[in-house]
Design a protein that fits this description.
Elements lengths: L1 E5 L4 E7 L6 E7 L3 H5 L4 E2 L21
Parallel strand pairs: 1-4
Antiparallel strand pairs: 1-2, 2-3
Length: 65
């Protein structure tokens, strides 16, 4: 199992845990080649993030003067 973390519209990181040593593995991939690179891994894609206007309770930054 691995997660795809998008960095740009075309590239991102494939992040997973090594089954042998349980350390985190990273690989930079082009999104168009994701299925080929992932092989038999189950890859989780990120959900679209909500725009601040779409949130019910936007976070406030009261520290700014």
């Amino acid at each position: 199992m691995a997660d795809y973390e998008a960095l740009t519209a075309t590239q991102g990181n494939l992040v997973g845990i090594c089954p042998a040593c349980e350390l985190i593995m990273n690989r930079r991939v082009n999104f168009s080649n994701l299925l080929e690179v992932a092989g038999n891994l189950n890859v989780t894609l990120p959900h679209a993030l909500l725009h601040i206007d779409e949130r019910t309770k936007p976070s406030l930054n009261s520290d700014l003067a």
